[in-house]
Every structure is written in C-alpha cells, then in structure tokens.
Amino acid sequence: MNHNPDERPIEGEMISDEPQETQTPPDTTMALVIYALYLASFVVGFTAVVGVVMAYVFRGKGPVWLDEHYRYQVRTFWIGLLYACIAFMLTLVLIGFPLLLALAVWLIVRCVKGFKCLHEKRAPSNVNSWLI
C-alpha cells in the first residue's frame, strides 16, 4: 500500500513507509510513558502536565501512526482539563461528583485504548473525538 506521508491514516490501518524487512520498529517508549503519566495523575496530580509537555515535544518525530498517538494524548489532556473544570464547578450543585467519576473512567478508557493501539502499532481510532 503506497501512502502519501502527509495523509492521515485510516482508522485501524497499519502504516508502513518502507518494506518490512529493512524497517526498524519505531520507539514507542515515550508514548507508553505519557499514557502511564496520565494514569499516575490519579495519585500524583501533576504528572499529567509532565505528560502533555512530553507529548508536545515528541509530536512530529515519528511515523504517522505514532504522531497520531501524541495528538491523541494532547487532546486527552486538554479535553480532560475542560471536563474537570466543568465537573468541579458543578460540585456546588452535587452533580459534579458523578461527573468527576465519569471523568476518571473516561481517562482510564482513553489510556487503555492508547496502550492497546500502541501494542498493535496503529493509530488510535477516533482521535478527534471528545468522548472515547
């Protein structure tokens, strides 16, 4: 399959720019670390900030499918921050507490989805989604 390097991958499609025999696998360690930092933010609150900074730094330095992970991680941080601000404001009327729980589930699901896609060496599906 020949692809233009500037094209976005089709959901679930594995991207290969070179023949499999000579291609060295890209290093996914930083993307894995970023997902782990997001999950660690439940215990140590500031690790998500470290993770998003790392995602910005490593974005654009790998194959397209890996860059999509960094984009997914950046979006996860900013969308999660927006949802958290809304939920915290709504705790005054008590609806914020279940929203905070839903936010925690949302973050865990997005990170697990990212781990799974990284293991499969493909871009996460629905990168532009505000949900899962």
Radius of gyration: 16 Å
Distance between the termini: 29 Å
Largest sheet: none
Average pLDDT rating: 87
- Stretches where pLDDT falls below 50 for ≥5 residues? none
The number of helical elements comes to 4
Order of helices and strands: HHHH
| Overall strand count | 0
Describe the global form: elongated
The structure class reads mainly alpha
Query: Which band does the percent of strand residues land in?
Result: under 5%
* Helical amount: 55-70%
What do these coordinates show?
The radius of gyration is 16 Å and the shape is elongated. By secondary structure, the protein is mainly alpha-helical. The protein is 57% helix and 0% strand. Helix 1 (29-40) runs antiparallel to helix 2. It contains 4 helices and no strands. The mean pLDDT is 87. It has a domain at 29-119. The protein has helices at 29-40, 47-58, 64-90, 96-119.
Summarize the helices and strands and which ones pair or pack.
Elements (H helix, E strand, L loop, with lengths): L28 H12 L6 H12 L5 H27 L5 H24 L13
Helix pairs in contact: 1-2, 1-3, 1-4, 2-3, 3-4
